[in-house]
Amino acid sequence: MRKILVVVLLLAFAEIARADTFSSFSAFGIACDMDGSCNSSTTTAPSLTVVSPEGQISVTAEVQQLTLSYGSLSLTAFAQGSMGTVTPSNSTIDATIGFSDMVTIFGGVGVGQLSFTAQTVGNIDNENGRCSGHFGSTASIPTAFTFGVPFQIGAQVSAAPFGFICNATVTSAFTLTGLSVTDANGNPLTGYSFTDASQTDYPFLNGTFVPTPEASTGVLLAAGALLVLLLVLARTSA
Q: Which of 61, 62, 103, 153 is 20 to 30 Å from the Cα of 6, by its Cα?
């Protein structure tokens, strides 16, 4: 029984898994001289420049602005292309950023319901109307959860301009503006608390954010508690 107690104590202060952020980039460019000779390249980096063999044409695809944080995402991508004699010189970049987090809500019993509001932005700006692109944003937030049990939330935005004989800039953004919690019957909940792996104070309506102790703090607390327990056991055995 004493061994079990020590194991449970150590597990209670084990390191909490951190949430993750992610990004994905895929760029392509082709640049051709007036005689039709071309260079092309692809990359998974957020920028790419391709110069034609004779250096007459240069195309660029890049992420110009990126803001990636828990609850707020913003992305601007640019692609520039021009016309060669035989093959049009063009570029494109497909960029996606997002976040994923584990949230736990306390203060209720059983199953609760969750809803959210968000502000989204999407825009395609091109030089002469001949360019194209696309943008989008998605949120992964459950409508139901269990109090005291961690669940995952997340969102992502994408921007993909295509520069063909012109320049194109695509902007996409997502900002979480509110989270509302109700009980299983749909009654608004007040006085509840929440925590999350990223230590982010999300905009929960009528909720209180409770920071989680850092892993190092937890280890120290566990070590101190274990020391006290050993002292108590030693005195009991004496």
A: 103
